[in-house]
Amino acid sequence: MNEDIVTNKLNQIFRKVFKDPGIKVTNEMAAKDVEKWDSLSHLILISTIESEFRIKFKLKELIAMKNVGDLIQSISSKI
Amino acid sequence: MKTLEKIKNSCEKFPERNAFFINDKFYTYKEFSYLVSNIKDLIEKEETKKGNLIGIIINDDIYTYSSIFAILFSGNAYVPINPDNPIDRNINIIEQAGIKIILTSERIPELENHKKLKTLKISDTSKIENKIQPLVISDISDNESAYLLFTSGSTGIPKGVPITRKALDSFVDSFFLLDYKINQNDGFLQMFDLTFDLSIMSYVIPLCIGACVYPVPSNVIKYTGVYDIMETHEITFALMVPSILSFLRPYFNDIKLEKLRYSLFCGEALYDDIAGEWSECVPNALIQNVYGPTEATIFCLTYNWNKKYSEKKSFNGIVSIGKPMNNVSAIIVDENLKILPDGEKGELCLSGNQLTEGYWKDIEKNKESFFKLNNKEKLFYRTGDICFIDEGGDFAYCGRLDNQIKVQGFRVELSEIEHHVRQITGLANVAAIPLVNKFGNTEIYLFVENYQDDANKIHEYLKLKIPQYMLPVDISSIPVFPLTSNGKINRKALLELIKLS
Prior knowledge:
The complex is a heterodimer of chains A (79) and B (501).
Chain A (H helix, E strand, L loop, with lengths): L2 H15 L21 H15 L5 H6 L3 H11 L1
Helix pairs in contact in A: 1-2, 1-4
Chain B lengths: L1 H12 L4 E5 L2 E4 H18 L6 E5 L4 H12 L3 E5 L5 H11 L3 E4 L4 H4 L5 E4 H4 L19 E7 L7 E6 H13 L9 E4 L7 H12 L2 E4 L6 H11 L4 E4 L2 H6 L13 E4 L6 H10 L4 E6 L9 E4 L9 E2 L2 E2 L3 E2 L3 E6 L12 E7 L10 H7 E3 L6 E11 L5 E6 L3 E4 L2 E4 H12 L4 E7 L5 E8 L5 H11 L8 E5 L12 H10 L1
Helix pairs in contact in B: 1-2, 1-8, 2-3, 13-14
């Protein structure tokens, strides 16, 4: 699966988790750019990504992720 | 004020030790006291009288922490203002408190335009220098306030809780009588918003002993930030809200914090099963469940969790809140404010030197919440928490008497949310319903009866009125509200509706 496919799938997940049909992820996007992106939605986002892509993140990987670009890379390296 | 003397002493005794680690940078006690002293001079130039309330715009920087102490050392009291909260709410707080001077390290144009307010930009005038500057404690009565915090108010207006210098000193005194083995070599986690009084323990206690404070940056996801700081800096003392544990729970297998010696929880119910799992992650730590409302200064009951007594010392899965600290007394009363015998459930009431003298300019609320037992002088505060005293004399927590809930440790009056929804919709029947999600965190769902307009309008309005953590995760309109047999909104039926969807 290449990064474009990951990005497309992530868009669908973000729209569902943040209940915002207009949201479009970019590499630079970070929690501060999305109004509802707090601890609670982060947990739901990560667990949705884990089940949709059938992967598992380690806590250290989550800490190292500074933006959506890091997230896409981490997903791509696991699938 | 004894607490300030302790902090002054730390600055003199440990000038080269680190006091804070903020945004990847350490600040020594010498640098901290230099800043405190300079900001104090700045305040005293503006305000020659003492005993005023001075606002601080809270930011993630050394200026904010130094300003808190500059205000206290100058004989004034501080009111923290979170710039991320809605401007309406902040203006309401500033006006209620009658604040004339506000300290900030970053410009907030909306507040600067407020005509009665003078903002002092501290980062312009106070360069950080590594010079010794002796701290002077201004002489003022300990009956004067140290700080004024605002919590959720059921009438839609934030409620002010003033805490005197004496009350804060009493907390610090009770804290050290708990016999923690801590000294200047310890590292303290500070994970709280500075408008939340648990933050005060997290920075005042380490500064009293010359230890280092590690605030969690506000621009990262909180639970990952908490873990990152704890692991990287080998934190030894951490006070957290239990909801951090429900966020970290999926990763407990990866977590081993061997340096942590004290793991305290406050602000929400701590569940025995999760405390048990956490104890495996922190094999060398004492897990302590502490309890206390802002009205009784930070916390005032403590329980040392022990796996051996798990079953005996939990009620409905919630860990006991233990016994009152030294300067506090706690009783359980019935609805007529008569003391109940041990084992019977009733409302927990608190008394002692840690208690506030009453809500800020709110006589009505004070009549409801404070009383004198058998007409004796001692004032008691009604917490609204239902508890009973177990066979060992420990207090067991059973729930709330009213519609107050906790979201990630923050107090939320559901009626405050409902009040604002009524204002914008003009509808009488609205209900904010809390639900604990599958991760163990509380989310708020909003119902409105027969609302024809766009639900987004409500959301946008609420964003202007209440902090982020109070916002409902979902808003739905239903044609007719389910009612109970006595005609009240059937909240249980609404809860079932959320679960069905």
